[in-house]
Every structure is written in structure tokens, then in C-alpha cells.
């Protein structure tokens, strides 16, 4: 075993830290939140230029053919600088679904790699709770040789900045769940966007008699469930890695703060009660990175083993992330409660990550059932 | 020992409950139910105080000669519990529970006549100017200076975490009037007209999109010397008096009771009421809230206990603040992915989200706000230091 980064991973991380460190300052983040799409377009173009959006696309399909480990290394850097641009939605989850399509999707994948296309998964339906294996009420029916989509989706993360929605749906007369690609601008598509706590965007999306070509079905119903599960696990791994990066930033920010902040005539970091809080945060963060590596090792395993590993890692990382962000905020006192200190942004980002694609409770149940 | 509830309180509780049900406007209740404690409440706070003033119920805890009602501690407990349970706004707290008692205890007759009726009637909001950027837990080290110049003080300095300072008419400030003596002895308690030239207020954007807390900058602000309360240099004593005045409020027992109930309601609405994991979490919280209520009752009933009162007050604060966290964390978790959405109060009132159950908006904003429970009024760590020192002499 070798836990050290390869030369390629080192270079990837160095360039990511350099670019993100320059651009994704706290001031940038606070100003960029007013962008309704939730995307910094200039930065997104740079992500494409740096090769990040092609990273996980197989070489045979025009990508860089990077490993899941490479993707995780990049994701830690994104998390460390609180980047909420839809890397996981588009370059991980979306790219995986297209890459697993039966037909030739090289044009779509090239558009993702080039930064021209962003996609968002639209799966959740009203009244649901992480129901990734449940049949979809959103339906595709046949009218002649056309397909027609009807249904209501909720909480499609990153949808406001996406040109294409990847919609899970039941196809009339077929068993299983299909994944269909729907143009965000198509007639009959109505997206109601809103901000999430971390400044990213999501939308509820209504599909009313939306006409689709047959090619819109990128994953047939027979394979939809399996491909969706793979894509969600990969996206979850990216989010877990982002959480680890964010937690490691929390350690940096907090250790600097407790050395600088003076009360009762000394830096507050001299107080043992606060030293022990920092030590607890350190322990949790270390365990979180280990949990991430365990999941990475199982990322290509057969589905049951992969899902179990991803869920175990999710429990570890997501629990740790809540401890670190909550204690990090406590160490900052009142300032931690303000939008003007970085810790509150990590707090909100880690809260959103905990709740996306399955919360701690969801993963506990998945492990218990495995 | 007699642990039976006081029968006379039953009728009293009925009377209070009926009065609140009659008086509380439905729109105010709905606003408070969703967003109470998060964003702008000034309008509701003052309106509710004025409504209660019609019954003479705004300062029941004050001495009778200043407008109090002579209610027992248990009656006051019931009165506050019924208001909180009904989602009535909190009546202007800084006036009725902070500066008011300082003025009627230590103030001049002129100050009493000028300020106490205005507090009773909910005429305006008071700002509390205690904390400074460099001094949170270490309050005695405050630096804002007031220098006597003839018949006025010239005040320079900066305060922080001042609630609703931008909308306050008057503020009560701790200022350093004597830099030569030891820190606690050089502090005075000064009432300042917030419209005075030289005062600048900046609202601070917070983690939950709230911006009710403010920074207050004082630049050569002239304050008539008659606005000093009590003795110069006694401000620290008055501040301690004020902060010790209500030892049981820091338990947030009414909030905790109400919000556990709300968590149960949300569990039902989310279809999780029979889930064993959720049931276990709720049962633990209910057990802890129930014990906390009895801890509060012991203090209110004046139990003669072997440990120091202040250590016991810290028990209430430690337990209450942890419950504020745990209960709102549970509410957040019950929402699943729906907890990720940021609901902005104003936008959501204009444009409600029809797909979203009505128990969602406001809950996560409240949970974010509750993170401050272990920070304000003495951090969790400071409370533990107090217990170690006063209970055990460590």
C-alpha cells in the first residue's frame, strides 16, 4: 500500500490549490452568492482548461481517464476552498451517467469536458426521503414515435446552472427506472430555483407534456437503478472528499484563530478546554480521511460491497464533519456566527454535504440492511 | 418535601391561556411560529408589548410600586410558559428584564419617571451595549471610554452584538469612566440616546441570513451626565445584578419544551413518528427537558441546597443550551434533504413554496441561530469553569 500522492496527483493538487487559493477567497465567495445560477462562469471555464471536467471521463470517450482517487484528490482541494460550483453534479455524477450510456454520447461528454455543458440530476419527488430505489411517479409515455414526459421533481441540486436535466422516470410499459436527458429550456419544463444554505442553487422542476426524442433515454429502465446507484456513490465520494478538505481548512482556520484571539490576558488557545476541543477536531478529521480512503479502495468493487463501503465512509465523514464544524464555530465565539468569518461558511457547506444524496441516518440504515 | 403541583396555579394558567388566545393576532402567531427568533421581530415585539399593556401585564415581575403585579415566581413561570407555548412574541426583553430593573433599583427619580412608563408601555426598543470586539467572555476588560466634561460625558469606543441597535431609541452602555483603578471598579452604567450625533450602527450579516445584531461605533458622543445610572464606577455591580436577575431564564426551558413538541409534530408530518431511531432520540430529549424543568422548579421554589447558587445557575445554562442544540439538530435531521434550503423570511412570505410542507420554512434558520446558545451569556466553557470553581473550589 502507498498512501502518498503520485506525481500526477501532486501536480493536480498543487495546481488546484494555487488556482483556487487565488480566486476562491472568502470575499469572492460572499460576492458570488448573488449569481442566480450558482456558478462562477469564468472559473468554470478555467476548470475546463485545467482538465478537471475531463478528469473522470474515460480516455476512449475523449476524457483524461483519471481514477476515482484522482477525482477525490481534486475534490479535497475544492472542499478546502468552499467551491460550490457543480463539479460533483456535472463532472462526476453526470459524466458517469453519460459514460455508461448504451449509445454514443461522446458529443455530450466533450461538452462537459470543455465546460460548455452542465447537467443536474432530477430525482427526488415530493414527499420523498432519499428514495433512490423507489419507482418514479415521473412518467414517460409514448405518443406515436415521440416520447412525452410528465412529473414533478424537487430539490434538484445545481439545476439552476445546468442546461440539461438528467431525469429519473418510469417508462410506460417497462419495468425499472430510466434516466432521460431533458433540455432545461424545452417547452413544458418549469424550474423554480432557490438558494441552498451554502450559496449553491437547487430547483423544483415541473415537467408538463414535455416532448422528447427517443435518444433522450440515455439509460434504459433495465439498467437505470444500477447506473444511478454507481453515479450517486461516485458523487458521494466527491462530496466526502470535499468535506475532508473543508474540515482540514477548519483546523487551519481555528488553530490560527485561537492563537490570535486574546481573552483574560492570553491567547484563548492557552486554555486547556479549547486545546481539547482542537484535539477532538483533529482526531475526527484524521478518521474522516481514513474513511474516505476505505471507500476509494472499494469504489470499483461489486455493488453491494461498494455501497456498504461508501455508506460506512459517509457515516464516519459526515459525523466528523458535524463535530468539526460545530466545535469550530464554538471556538470562534460570536464571530463564528457571522457571515464575515470563514468558519460559518464551512459550517453551512458541511451541513449541506451531510444532507445531500443521503444523510447520516440514511447511511446507517443502508449499512444495517447490508 | 411536597412535590405536588400548586392547585391554585391551574386556574391562573387557564386565565393566562385564555387571555393570550384572545389577544394574539393570527398573523403574528403564524410569523412567530415559522420565523420567531430568527429575523426582524421588532414590529411584533412592540405590538405584543402594547397589546399586553392593555391588561397591565408587561412587567409583572417588577415591584408593585413600579407596575409589577406581585405574582409569585411560579405564576411568572406559568405566564412566560404560556406565552412561549402559544408562539407569542417575546416582550421587549432588554427594557423589561435588563435596564428596567437597574433603573428602578439604582436610578434617580427623574430616570424612573422618564424611562419606566415607556418600558411598561412598549414605546420603543432598548439596545444593550456591553460586549466589545476584543471583550466577549472577558467583559470586565471593556475599553469604551466616557470622560466627564462639565455636565456631560464624551464617549468613544465600539460595542458589538447589540441586538436591533439600528431600530433602538435608547441604549444602556457599560463604559470606562476611570482608567486608573482595577478594571471592574472603573466601569459605569450610562443611558445613551441612540440618535445622538457620533453614533454609527452597522448591522452584522449572520450565518442564518439574519442581521439583527449590530456593531455600534461611538465617536465623541455627548451624553448628559444625568444619564449615568447610580454611582460612577458601580456599573460592573449593576451589570452583574442585571445578569443575575433571572437565574432560570438561561435554561430556555420554555423554548426547549415547545421545540421538543414541535420535533414530535415534524416527525409525524415526515412519517417518522414510529421509527425506532427517531423515537429513541426524541425520548432522550424529552427525558432531559423534563429533568431540566424540575431543576428550574427547584431554583424557583428556593431550595436550600448544599452547592453554590451560581454553580446551579450554570447547570441550567449548560443543560438548556445543549438541549437548544440537540433539539434543533433533531428538527433539522427530520427534514432530510429539505434542510438544505435557505428560506429568506421576506421572500418566503411573498412567495410561499407550495410543494414544501409548512413545517419546513424557518426551522434550519432557527437551528443555525441556536448555535449561539453555547456562546452568549457566558460560553459553555466559561460555565464549566464556574461550576469547577464554585461547586468544588477548583
TrEMBL record, chain A:
Please tell me whether the keyword Calcium is annotated for this protein: no
Classify the source by domain of life. Answer: Bacteria
| Chain ranges of the Acyl-CoA dehydrogenase/oxidase N-terminal domain | 7-81
Gene Ontology MF: a single term: acyl-CoA dehydrogenase activity
Q: Which InterPro entries match?
A: Acyl-CoA_Oxase/DH_mid-dom_sf (IPR046373), AcylCo_DH-like_C (IPR036250), AcylCo_DH/oxidase_C (IPR009075), AcylCoA_DH/ox_N (IPR013786), AcylCoA_DH/ox_N_sf (IPR037069), AcylCoA_DH/oxidase_NM_dom_sf (IPR009100)
This protein's cofactor list reads: FAD
Please state every residue range assigned to the domain named Acyl-CoA dehydrogenase/oxidase C-terminal.
Answer: 223-369
Pfam families for the chain: Acyl-CoA_dh_1, Acyl-CoA_dh_N
Keywords (A to Z) from UniProt: FAD, Flavoprotein, Oxidoreductase
Q: Which family does it belong to?
A: Belongs to the acyl-CoA dehydrogenase family.
Protein name per the record: Acyl-CoA/acyl-ACP dehydrogenase
**Source organism of this protein record:** Sphingomonas tagetis
Automatic annotation (TrEMBL), chain B:
- SUPFAM superfamilies xrefs: Acyl-CoA dehydrogenase C-terminal domain-like (SSF47203), Acyl-CoA dehydrogenase NM domain-like (SSF56645)
Domain Acyl-CoA dehydrogenase/oxidase N-terminal: from-to ranges: 9-123
Give the record's family classification: Belongs to the acyl-CoA dehydrogenase family.
InterPro entries from the entry?
Acyl-CoA_Oxase/DH_mid-dom, Acyl-CoA_Oxase/DH_mid-dom_sf, AcylCo_DH-like_C, AcylCo_DH/oxidase_C, AcylCoA_DH/ox_N, AcylCoA_DH/ox_N_sf, AcylCoA_DH/oxidase_NM_dom_sf, Mycobact_Acyl-CoA_DH
Give the Acyl-CoA dehydrogenase/oxidase C-terminal domain ranges.
Answer: 233-389
Q: Where is the Acyl-CoA oxidase/dehydrogenase middle domain?
A: 127-221
**Would you tell me the protein name for this molecule?**
Acyl-CoA dehydrogenase family protein
Keyword flag Oxidoreductase: yes
- Recorded source organism is Sphingomonas tagetis
